[in-house]
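Q: What residues go here?
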């Protein structure tokens, strides 16, 4: 909040010190003190020198903590004032909500960040889960082509024995060794390692007991460290009630967080939710973004929308073109060779 302070050196100019102009959320509010009685001409509460003011009665102080449940902008001293002021606040409350929804959609449908490049060949990583591999020795994501290719020493000779293509550490041969490395990465706050440990707890594998609560705790930690996939997993947990009560609103919230960070599967989940709700225009926007990120099934969903008259031929063509551009960015002869040798290295 900025406060316009008025001062003058002109003797003919007089300023009433009891009137303070404040700007809060682009709304001009005035608080007038007269004969120890305070009134407010504003329809909204404002901070008066850092003190909240009740939008109904003008009361100031720490007791003014009852916030409008819808717009989260206006404060009251108690529930009675909130109820009394409701009819006056309704129009402004709806406008606050409209503007908030508009700003949210601008962020939601903004082009998300692309998936990072392979740490060795520096070609964009695919989104297909067999198209890349996480190495717990160094914490690097390597594409299927670099993971499949032989490792050479400084003289150009093939290194005997399986080693990490990036850091040249010997590959683990037992689950115990793998878990020991993963533990070190978790202690180093590696978000992917933290997420992977959460997945182990979710299904109860690699020596971890099945514990949904622990899985969610680790996914929250990974998400806060920037790993978008973790937020999608949390969304799925709330969507299907895994370890928590089913809460569709929370599911959408975490899908959105993941999608805005670039997770294509979360974006497709949002598209499916909007399609089910009949919001085909919003569903189409999500599917186009997901297709551009490499999500193959989103192309099929756009074709279904087109067949049912909810998308145009231009929408369908645009999505296909964006998907082809994605394929052009991730393709390489080394990745093709790996995919041809083993389906576990397929990358699209």
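A:
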């Amino acid at each position: 909040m900025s406060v316009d302070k008025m001062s003058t050196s002109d003797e003919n100019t007089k300023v009433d010190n009891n009137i303070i102009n404040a700007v809060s959320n682009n709304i001009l509010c005035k608080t007038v003190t007269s004969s120890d009685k305070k009134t407010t001409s504003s329809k909204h509460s404002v901070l008066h020198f850092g003190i909240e003011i009740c939008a109904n009665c003008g009361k100031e102080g720490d007791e003014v903590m009852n916030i409008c449940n819808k717009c989260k902008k206006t404060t009251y001293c108690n529930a009675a004032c909130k109820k009394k002021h409701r009819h006056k606040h309704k129009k402004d409350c709806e406008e606050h909500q409209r503007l908030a929804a508009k700003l949210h959609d601008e962020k939601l449908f903004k082009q998300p960040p692309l998936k990072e490049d392979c740490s060795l060949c520096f070609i964009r990583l695919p989104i297909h889960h067999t198209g890349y591999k996480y190495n717990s020795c160094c914490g690097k994501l390597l594409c299927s082509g670099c993971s499949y290719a032989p490792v050479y020493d400084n003289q150009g000779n093939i290194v005997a024995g399986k080693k990490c293509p990036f850091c040249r550490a010997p590959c683990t041969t037992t689950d115990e060794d793998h878990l020991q490395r993963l533990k070190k990465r978790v202690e180093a706050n590696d978000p992917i390692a933290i997420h992977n440990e959460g997945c182990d707890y979710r299904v109860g594998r690699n020596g971890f007991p099945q514990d949904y609560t622990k899985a969610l705790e680790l996914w929250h930690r990974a998400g806060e460290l920037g790993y978008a996939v973790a937020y999608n997993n949390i969304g799925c947990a709330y969507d299907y009630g895994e370890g928590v009560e089913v809460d569709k609103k929370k599911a959408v919230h975490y899908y959105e967080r993941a999608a805005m960070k670039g997770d294509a599967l979360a974006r497709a989940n949002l598209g499916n939710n909007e399609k089910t709700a009949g919001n085909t225009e919003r569903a189409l926007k999500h599917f186009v973004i997901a297709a551009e990120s490499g999500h193959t099934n989103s192309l099929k969903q756009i074709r279904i929308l087109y067949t049912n008259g909810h998308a145009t031929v231009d929408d369908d063509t645009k999505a296909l073109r964006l998907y082809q551009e994605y394929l052009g960015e991730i393709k390489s002869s080394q990745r093709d060779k790996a995919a041809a040798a083993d389906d576990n290295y397929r990358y699209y």
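A: Context that may help when evaluating the design: Residues 219 and 230 are 5 Å apart (CA to CA). The first helix runs from residue 79 to 108.
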